[in-house]
Structure formats: C-alpha cells, structure tokens
Amino acid sequence: MAVTMLQDWCRWMGVSARRGLLILGIPEDCDEAELQESLEAALWPMGHFTVLGKVFREEEDATAALVELDREVNYALVPREIPGTGGPWNVVFVPRCSGEEFLGRVFHFPEQQGQTVESVTGALGLGLRRLCWLQSVGQAVQPWVETMRYQRLGVFSGRDQPAPGEESFEAWLDHTAHMLHVWQGVSEREKRRRLMEGLRGTALQLVHGLLAENPARTAQDCLAALIQVFGDNESQATIRVKCLTAQQQSGERLSAFVLRLEVLLQKAIEKGALARASVDHVRLRQVLTRANLTEPLDEALRKLRMVGRSPNFLEMLGLVRESEAWEASLARSKRGQAEEGAGARANAQADARANAKAEDDKVEEKEQEEQEREEEESDDRDTVPAGVGQARPSEAPGGPTPAQTGSASRAGPGGPGCEPEGLAQAGDQEAGELPEEGLKPIPEESGNKDGAGETSPPKSSSSK
Questions:
Q1: What does the DSSP assignment read for 39-96?
Q2: 252-282: per-residue pLDDT in tens?
C-alpha cells in the first residue's frame, strides 16, 4: 500500500513519516525543473520542502517521489492531487487519528462489546442525570461525527494506465481501506454505496456482478474481491526473479535504480522470497553487476565486497549520490569547455563568412564595372558621326564606292587627299540630272572594264 511505502521509505531515509509526502503518478520523462515547479505551485502554503528521492514503479509505469516538509503535515492544507505533466499526481500522507474518529470509537465501543451505554454508566456508578447528559451529547454530536467521517473516495476504473483524475489501485486501496475502518458505525448499505461511488469501468462491473449474485455481500467482501483481481498476486518465485534480474535502464539515474531496487527487495522480504539478512549482499551484487558505475564508485564497492562488508541502503544511496555529484560537476566542466570551443569556432566561421562576403562583393563590383565599360564601348561603336550618313556623289547607284573614290583621289593630280575641282563639279551635275522616276545606272565605258574605279579626266578646252 502507498502509506506503507511512505512509512518504510521515511524509515529508510531517517525522516519522520509525519513530515513526509509520497507523490505518485509522475511521468518518467518529467525532468527536475518541471517537478520542482509543480511541487512549489501546490505545496507552497505548507512551507519549505525537499525532494529526498525518486523511484520508478513498474506497476504504474510512473515515478514516485518522496518529499520531506520542514514541519509536520498540515491536514487542512495538504492537497489530495497536484496538477502536473501527464495529469494529476496523487499525494499520499500518513493519516492522523482525528478527534472525530476518536469520538466515533468512544460511542461505538459499547456496541462492539455487546453492551449498551446505560450498562456502562451503571457499572461506572454514574447517575441518571449524567446518563441523560451523555445521551444528549451523543445525539448532538453524532451527525457531526458522521459528516466529518465521510470523505468521498478516489476514482478507480481497473485500467492498466489510469486516466486523468483516476488513481492507481494501490493508492485507491490504501485510502478505501482506511475509510472503511472509519465508517464502522455506517450501515452496510451505505458503505457499499460509498464504495461503488468511486468505481468506474471494469471495477464497477465486477462489484455489480458480485452484488447481483449475492446482495448480502459486505463492502469488505467487495473490497477483498477487488484486491484479488487487481491487487499484487505475484508469487515468491516471481518477486525473487524480479529482484535478481533488476537492472539500470537506459537514461535512468543510478540513484533512481537503487531506489527502485530497494522497493523490490522490501517487497520480496514481505512475501518471504528473500531473507532480511541477505538484503545488503543482494543489493551490492545487483548494483555491481546490473548498473553503470563510474570507475571510482566501482572500485570502492568492490573493495567493500572483498572485505565482506556490504553497505546498507542508506550507505549505498550516499555513495551513489556522491558519485552522481562528482559526475555532474565533471559534466559541467566539460560542457563549459565545449561551449567555449563552440563559441570560438562560431566566431571563426563568422569571420570567414564575412571575409568571403567581402571578396564576393569586390568581385561583383569589378564585374559590374567591366560590364558598364563594355556597354559604353558598344554604345560608342553604334553611334554614327555627323555627316557620315549624307549621300555623296560616289554613293549613287552604279557609281564608284567610297573606297574607289578614295583611290581615285589619291591617284589624281595634287597628290593624296586632293580631288580635281572639275571632277567634283561634273559628279554633282550628273547627280542633279537624274530623272525623278528612279536612278538608273550609268553605262560603264569600255575603257573602265579593266580598271574598276578609274575615271578618265575631262578634256581640256585647249585640246579643241
């Protein structure tokens, strides 16, 4: 049961169970930051607290955590559930022997002994006036006692994985068994009603079937049937095998494995599968062979084994936590060095990228300048100088090409670059006498067949 687990765990850790809380249903992937945040949000009215340890529970596929308060549990402030990752987490605490429970026991004690209140008062020598006073007080406080006794049970459906708002069977069974003990003065019919009030699904169908078969079954009979179906029915051999084959899981902290192993060992002792005197030896062997140990811790445990001194649970847990603290400090140191190296590499990469970008910008700027220079040169070649596009006499159809004209001018009198004045006037006159319908080619003279572009000079008047 959960309360028994809380008491045993507190005894192992050397703390008072009246200052301890057991938190059930914590998801395995919930990290320390989320756990602390959820606990602080729910337990801050109860003062300062410390998480003493966590253990993974296979039957619930969830983690349980032991929390120690700096003062005894305030039953008026302690929550029944804590909102957290994966749904609400159940809170288990040691129940108190309340004043209403004491009054109930006082009033129901004579009935349990087969006597009446009158017979008890008579045996004690109490007078009639005092008897009437006791009866009046009993009648006055009885409704208050019954009201304070009634606490609505948690919800249990019989599922392997409890849904949000439901409790595991162990947590539900612990609370229900306690409340059935408190409800001693309640009728069996009311007990069955209160019991079925918290049942859902398969569990409710089971109790319905039992009562349909025999309506006279008591609430305790129904609870015994639920324990037989949903309770822990492992044999001695099964629990012993679980103890001897338990090993540290991937990603599981060594301290969590030690706590989980301790739960199995204590369960094996309860079922008689393991002798209490051999628990320390089995624990040491399982930690050495089934866990991932650091070299210093492995060496220390092997030395203890060689001298024949197996550490108890608290000693083992202390050694493990020291090893985890050393490992954490080493990891932080390595992480700091890695972060510094990563920062230096990142800066170097950033500088390299900046330099490469600067080089690319220079290349791109040069390419752009060359492209602009090529475009300017292309524009200069495409531009025609003034006067070049005007028609010249030598460009008329059938006339000599500019090259021919240039050669003729170089061959004429006056030397290169000089053109005879009469030839220029004759060319202009011929160009002006062309008909408007179209320009017709001038027939070439026979003397010009061999010398293309050569023009005979006009005859001078003196030759006449």
A1: HHHHHGGG--EEEEEEEEETTTTEEEEEEEESS---TTT--SEE--TTSPEEEE-PPP
A2: 889 999 988 998 898 888 888 888 889 999 9
